[in-house]
Amino acid sequence: MRFPRGECNAHCKFNVALFCKLLSWSKRRRTCRHFVLFQSTHNLHFMKKVFSFLLLLALLLVCLSADAQVRRPNNSGSKRTTEPSIKDKLWYGGFFGLGFGGDGTTTSFGINLSPMVGYKILPPLSLGPRIGVNYNYLRVRGIRDFNLFDFEIAAFVRLHVYRGFFLHGELGSLTDQYVEFNGSDYVRTRRTRPAQYAGFGYNFSGGRGGFGQEISVLYDFFIGGDINAFENPWQYRFAFTYGF
Question: CATH number for the domain including 196?
Answer without folding.
Answer: 2.40.160.20
